[in-house]
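for the writeup, i need someone to sanity check this before i put it in the appendix. the sequnce is what the collaborator sent (i think, or maybe the updated version? ugh). structure was predicted straight from it, no edits. if anything looks off just tell me and ill rerun, i have time this weekend
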Amino acid sequence: MGKSKEGSWDQILLNGSEKGMATGMKITLTQTSPTGTQSDIRGHKLLCDRPTEKGGGDTGPLGGEHFLFGLAGCFSSNLLGAIPEHDSPLAGIQVDVEATFAEDNRISAVNLKVSAAEGDKAALERCVAAAEANCILVNTLRSVVDITSSVAM
């Protein structure tokens, strides 16, 4: 694939719309051990492996853990972006993610528990609602996974 002035098309496909929004993404994982892989995403090296009790080398999180991190990371990015947009004096944000497994070997539900060390609950609830509405992963997964959020101060 070619290069754009923003970087490698293999990692993020830009310039596909008039607003400069990404039109897609692509990453590559390379085997690093009998059970592990690595990806270099925009210069960030990420590892994925099975834990030793499952026969792996435990050189990185499981794919499911990366999945939850990606979901929470997308949500958190939108949450932190909503704070200045809503003129909300919030600080010390923490997002705890809890997944529930179904009997058919899939994640059936995810709860995003959001708290803030500083600010008020109403402002946090407004920002959480904005994050839910704007997170591409929440929007993508909501039809197949029960995604909920809760707020605590």
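Confidence is low (pLDDT under 50) at residues 1-18. The helical segments are 63-85, 121-134, 136-141.
thx in advance!!
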